[in-house]
What does this fold into?
Amino acid sequence: MRITNSDVKTIYFCPRKAQFELKERKIEKDQFNELFDIFETEAFGCTLVAVVDEVVSREPYVVKIRKSGKRVSEYHMLEAAFIGYVIESNGRSVENIIMESPFYSVFINWRPYVTKMLSLLSFFCENSEFKVVKTHLCRTCQYSGECFREVAEVEGLNFLHGVKGSSLEKLRSYGITNLKDVIKLYHIVEELFGQEKSRRIVAQAKSIIEQKPVVFKQLPEIRDGIFLDIESYTPFNFDYLFGILDNDKYIPFLAEGVSSEREAFESTVEYIKNTGKIVYHFHNYEVTRFKKLSKKYNINLPKKFFETFVDVYKLYADHVALPVPSYSLKSIARFFGFNWRTSLNGQIVVRSYAEYLATSDKHILYEILIYNEDDVRATELILRKLREFSSQKN
Ligand code: SF4
It folds into this structure.
């Protein structure tokens, strides 16, 4: 098995996911050689491959790794230890490993983390089966369906949406340890959480066991509308793209630079006002940004304007139980068969936009536009599904 430094994060949070990914991945031995300095070494029956984004100097080595997040975490240290260890195993000396993101640039003191990194890798390389453990990676994981089927047989309380901490403990203290118990012992669940919450919890359990959506509260009327998704470059607090899907047509309002943010925002507001349609979005980010921008540019957006905004996430969370690890747009839309055309996500897109700012490479911008278009199309798909549930119910 060939493991690269960029796999360290996944191994750290969910070795099971890393195992799925590595089995599917086809890395040709010389895939990177023309582009990067590549070092390899063997450990615990695996091949460790260090791939860096930039070699700053070679004697001794100073290398740079690019990231997208806001802060440095322990897994970054382990990734740096992986790189340092692999390069030095090839007889070179590593002076510095720099990690850089749009939010930080730091020298990583990687040597103290080598022991922990090696123990993580030995656990990963020397085991063939890993348990399903709920982590934040489950939110967007493409293998969640498989994990759900597995946990549904044995446990799975962790995967009940909105049930954690003390609620989980309460269930367990009453002998409710798996999803079937939740259904069988409904009267206890109701006693513990009240009628409304218990109805949701039981619907969730059913949904996971039967692997299908379960409507637990009648849905409101779903009217036609447009779909909105904003892309922001958070280091500058800059909203550069307002993507709208209207009648199957994708309309991007793009700010070429910070100075044209106002114009892009005003054009979007104008468009929304002119259509007079409901504005569907996922989560409350769009509403929050609209309120901030209207304040920033002194543009009056009355309460009535926001009354046309409908959060599709809330429609799901309040009415439909789904067999998904989280109610993120990615999880829900994937469950209904939607495929994103790019490998971008909320974090990576920030890094991509930083690269676009640095290089003005239109291909990068094009990819971001596709990603944004897919987000609004995914929102449209999951709203369509809600409409289907709604008509089944009535
Ligand atoms: S769904 Fe969660 S537990 Fe399963 S492989 Fe993905 S990240 Fe791991």
In short: The chain has a mean pLDDT of 90. The first helix runs from residue 8 to 13. The two ends are 53 Å apart (CA to CA). The longest strand covers residues 225-233.
